[in-house]
From TrEMBL, chain A:
Record-listed Ni(2+) binding positions: C65, C68, C415
Positions contributing to Fe cation binding: C68, C418
SUPFAM superfamilies reported in the protein's UniProt record: HydB/Nqo4-like
Key words of the record: Iron, Magnesium, Metal-binding, Nickel, Oxidoreductase
Domain of life: Bacteria
Species: Kribbella sindirgiensis
Gene3D superfamilies assigned to the protein according to its UniProt record, in alphabetical order: Cytochrome-c3 Hydrogenase, chain B
Binding site for Mg(2+): E46, I371, H421
Protein name as catalogued: Ni/Fe hydrogenase subunit alpha
GO molecular function: ferredoxin hydrogenase activity; nickel cation binding
InterPro entries in UniProt: Ni-dep_hyd_lsu, Ni-dep_hyd_lsu_Ni_BS, NiFe-Hase_large
Cofactor: Fe cation; Ni(2+)
UniProtKB/TrEMBL annotation, chain B:
Origin superkingdom: Bacteria
SUPFAM superfamilies documented for this protein: HybD-like
UniProt key word Protease: yes
Organism for this UniProt entry: Kribbella sindirgiensis
Protein name stated in the entry: Hydrogenase maturation protease
Pfam name, any one: HycI
Length: 430, 147
């Protein structure tokens, strides 16, 4: 029996939001460990929020992520509105959904074009891609800008919007202001359809997941900014029961906590949303999915880039629909009077489910906060993929295997904000 | 617009907030035609902010080894090092954004980068002592660029 030990060091896990470290150990042809090391900033924010006023979480938690601040703001608002027994005016709720569409568009465009497409097209990064395919990168930036424009108009700023408050918005835009975005969004919709055609032509490694898939669902729309939870295994529960079903636990092969759904492995994000809610897509997105070869479900994580592209089409279709139906609400926000109690909120961040829970005291101060972000929910599934991908590709040299591991991680668009730094691949006796 | 000052970083990551702190400090005393904006370092936003502007000044935190926190480095286009170890939370830092801008012809006429060596980019608000000490010099230097 031959034993071989090698160690690769890569200066960072590039092209994920933030930085992460990966350690894979292979022994005698068996992948023993695949650990994605993540330091989770929400843990810090949970402590930071205690003793703060009930009105503060939307602004504070928005700072957890520069790519999906609206997701943090929305889940925070939902949880506090739930605790205080407040319902939004439908026009205000639609405006919240429209803002969230902007975030989906910009976040997905960033991931597809600047982070993930280079993997499939054989470029080390988007810069090299731009040198050969300038039109492709220009299209990605144009799409991203359209999403940013929605966020700027409704949120008053493209990153960390400042117009969001518990109960709605400080100011609702005029109808004419929103209509002014129509030409840009219409162009973006054409760009989004071209994006689906482009990514559906990529070559996808074979990998089919059998995990349970969990997403938010509402009866009449592709769920984004609220809903109940549903899984492909048939689970169905309200957000108030989230913590009864989703439990974080210690596992043997990793130092990180892993979330489990009723004690089993599960995944949130684009694959889950598409598989559970495909029938609720609008016509153009649905046709684009068919044309792209997506079936009634999608369980190949490498094809998540296609689902993201379809979701960009959907977000633009939906944004245009909401924009045309927009009526300036009588009041941009509902009054929210604090009361002691607990509230829960969940929404679909671009990369998956984002859950917030707050407990308020009689003065409206936060007694406890729990934030369960998508990346920590998906971590066990990512590591499971890595074990399978490495196990099936042990014939690759270290450089190509490392690249494939990074691509595998990028399938999940993970939001990792930490200061960890090395990708160590130790291969023994493979 | 004759110049734009772009503060990059996250004020909830200690010294990574030096860019935003500069924008806040400098905004009230800007000459006409000069804007100061916040940016999280995301490359597409950077390109949009600086494309075609006569002068863009970027202020960001950097982590160096060996490190002398509070040291202010100044670079112009062409001198920006390949990987100065940006302390921002994004994988594409200023050097990569600049390379992308060059590939797409979306560069400012002139780019000046102020990189401030960070002592602490952990979670929390407020600058570390060495960066706080260097801060007045940074404000003065950036203002001198646009006057």
């Amino acid at each position: 029996m031959s034993h071989r030990s090698r160690q690769l060091k890569v200066s960072s896990l590039a092209r994920v939001e933030g930085e992460g470290a990966l350690r894979v150990v292979v022994n005698d042809g068996t992948v023993e460990r695949a650990e994605l090391q993540i330091y989770e900033p929400p843990r810090f924010f949970e402590a930071f929020l205690r003793g703060r006023k009930y009105t503060e979480p939307p602004d504070i938690t928005a700072r957890i992520c520069g790519i999906c601040p609206v997701a943090y703001q929305t889940s925070a608002c939902l949880a506090i509105e739930d605790a205080c027994g407040v319902e939004l005016d439908p026009a205000v709720a639609d405006l919240r959904r429209l803002l969230y569409c902007g975030e989906w568009i910009q976040s997905h465009a960033l991931h597809i074009y600047l982070l993930h497409a280079p993997d499939f097209l054989g470029y080390p990064d988007a810069i090299e891609l731009a040198k050969d395919h300038r039109d492709v990168v220009e299209r990605g930036l144009r799409l991203k800008k359209a999403g940013n424009a929605l966020m700027e108009l409704i949120g008053a700023r493209a990153i960390h919007p400042i117009n969001v408050r518990v109960g709605g918005f400080y100011r609702a835009p005029a109808r004419a202001e929103l209509q002014g975005l129509r030409p840009q969004l219409s162009q973006a919709l054409r760009d989004a359809l071209a994006t689906v055609r482009m990514v559906s032509g990529f070559t996808f490694p074979d990998l089919e997941l059998d995990h349970d898939l969990l997403a938010v669902r509402v009866p009449d729309r592709y769920a984004i900014e609220s809903g109940d939870l549903h899984s492909t295994s048939g689970l169905s529960f309200a957000v108030g029961n989230f913590s009864e079903h989703v439990v974080e636990r210690q596992v043997e092969h990793s130092t990180a906590l892993h979330a489990a759904l009723d004690n089993h492995l599960y995944l949130t994000g684009p694959l889950a949303r598409y598989t559970l809610n495909r029938a609720r897509l609008l016509p153009l997105a649905r046709a684009a999915a068919v044309e792209a070869g997506l079936g009634v479900e999608c369980r190949n994580p490498f094809r998540s880039i296609v689902v993201r592209a379809v979701e960009v089409v959907y977000a633009l279709e939906e944004a245009l629909r909401l924009l045309d139906a927009y009526v300036v609400p009588d009041r941009p926000y509902a009054d929210v009077v604090p009361r002691p109690g607990v509230g829960h909120g969940v929404s679909e961040a671009p990369r998956g489910l984002l859950y917030h829970r707050y407990e308020l005291d009689e003065d409206g101060l936060i007694r406890s906060a729990v934030i369960v972000p998508p990346t920590s929910q998906n971590q066990a599934a990512i590591e499971d993929d890595l074990r399978r991908v490495v196990g099936a590709n042990l014939d690759l040299d270290d450089g190509r295997l490392t690249a494939l591991c990074e691509q595998t991680i990028r399938n999940y668009d993970p939001c990792i904000s930490c200061s960890a730094h090395f990708l160590d691949l130790t291969v023994e006796g493979r | 617009m004759t110049a734009v000052i772009i503060g990059i970083g996250n004020e909830y990551r200690r010294d990574d907030g030096v860019g935003p702190a500069l924008v806040a400090a400098i905004e009230p005393c800007l000459p006409d035609g000069v804007r100061a904006v916040l940016c999280d370092g995301e490359p597409a936003a950077l390109l949009d902010t600086w494309a075609g502007v006569p002068l863009a000044i970027v202020v960001d935190a950097v982590q160096c080894e060996p490190s002398s926190p509070g040291t202010i480095h100044r670079y112009e286009t062409g001198e920006v090092p390949g990987h100065p170890g940006s302390a921002s939370t994004h994988a594409l830092g200023v050097p990569d954004a600049l390379r992308l801008a060059q590939a797409l012809d979306r560069v400012p006429d002139r780019l000046v980068v102020y990189a401030v060596e960070a002592a602490d980019v952990g979670f929390g608000t407020g600058l570390s002592d060495p960066v706080q000490l260097a801060f007045p010099e940074l404000v003065e230097a950036v203002l001198a660029e646009v006057r």
